[in-house]
Amino acid sequence: MTRTTLTPGDTPGADQRPGGDQASDTGSALSNGLKQRHLSMIALGGVIGAGLFVGSGAGIAAAGPSIVFAYAASGLLVMLVMRMLGEMSAANPASGSFSVHAERAIGPWAGFTSGWAFWFLLCVAVGLEGIGAAEIMSGWLPGTPEWAWVALFMVIFCGTNLAAVKNFGEFEFWFATLKVVAIVVFLVIGVLAILGVLPGSEAPGTSNLTGEGGFLPNGSEGFIIGLLASVFAYGGLETVTIAAAESERPAEGVAKAVRTAMWRIGVFYVGSMAVIVTLVPWDDPAVAEKGPYVATLDHLGIPGSGQIMNVVVLIALLSAMNANIYGASRMACSLVARGQGPRKLGRVFNGVPRIAVLASSFFGFVCVLLSYWRPDDVFAWLLNMIGAVILVVWFFTAASQLLLRRRTEREAPERLVVRMWLFPGLTWVALAAMAGVFVLMAKEPDTRVQLLSTGSLTVALALAGYLLQRKRAAAPAGVGKG
């Protein structure tokens, strides 16, 4: 077994593959076992999670049929963010993705802040997904303790991520394939039902879109709640730009994955919402209780639909656990390589940062234990802390692209194999849209607490990153490098 130790001294210039530069992290120490088919399915499947299959019900209950516009609007924002991230990641592939780009564009404190905030988000999310998957398994096998299922899932996916990266890629490929197939089948059934050609169904017309209070039944306030729910449902796309650094051809791989994923994601999300609110009354209690997909299939009389969707949701949760442990470990490894974390986390064994994998899995399991021990205070506090982290990451991404685009055009224009549309206009539009979402969160009581908690976490990390940056700048040459 070979072992590589990444230290702060390894930071800039360590990436020896094409596309790496002096601001990249130590991608050369990691393997390159991911293939293009892995990246393409990670990009497609990474965003199709339980938030879509189950969580979208709350958005529909609030916004009614206008949830279609909410998902379309937030989907456009996500496409802009992914285009910007794709541009930077294709030009400079790095396992730290947006954190590396923020460091290059703004400064080490920005890379520190966005990187560790994202790591924190992924680790807590691993715990949440483990709890959700355990609840499904306990429902199928009554009497089995949920904590035992969580422990089993943690062991499986920790083991998967401790092995070669191609194992992670294979798991995600098949998980994502099953999720995509499930969405496509749902859309086909839904369209047939809308057209009235599905056996046993009649075309609903626009009755569910215009009845029961109209297209905007709860007014602008309901639409805002639905919009906020839809924004956070899109989280997960960032993993493909992290994984690209471990692919055979990083620059080409991320460029192709981003291009092919964006329009399909729009079809999956917006198309699903349109099918659901056309076929089922938005205020049907089953939409929130069972989830919109199960409610729609039940409404159409599809036999065994509840159990079928439970299988799909379980796959989505397990896929997210696998991907989040991977993403958290690579982000931690990248941060350490740039001198922004405990050195031991950066040790790489046979191309895998195994200490980072273990640490990320352990933190996720601690979150699960807190959900049992202190659900009303500590665990609730953790959930609020991560409430708006993805928006913080997106904001750093847009700001970094705004600064790096001109620099890349001057220094290495040949690396711009993916270009942001209508630059810089659409970058500014994305930044303004994110600022607008922050304002909307501040106005809503339910999201205001999340905004304040996430803001506190971000400020604390930014301060820690700035102090570390000042300390390293003031240190004599060579001090703290080994």
Give the secondary structure arrangement, pairings included.
Elements: E1 3-4, H1 36-45, H2 50-63, H3 67-91, H4 98-105, H5 108-140, H6 146-162, H7 165-195, H8 207-210, H9 219-233, H10 239-243, H11 250-279, H12 285-289, H13 292-299, H14 305-337, E2 348-349, H15 354-373, H16 378-385, H17 389-411, H18 425-443, H19 445-474
Antiparallel strand pairs: 1-2
Helix pairs in contact: 1-7, 1-11, 2-9, 3-9, 3-11, 3-17, 3-18, 4-5, 4-17, 5-6, 5-14, 5-15, 5-17, 5-19, 6-14, 6-15, 7-11, 7-14, 14-15, 16-19, 17-18, 18-19
Domain Amino acid permease/ SLC12A: 38-448
Transmembrane segments: 41-62, 68-85, 106-127, 147-165, 177-198, 223-245, 265-282, 308-327, 348-373, 379-404, 416-442, 448-468
Region (Disordered): 1-28
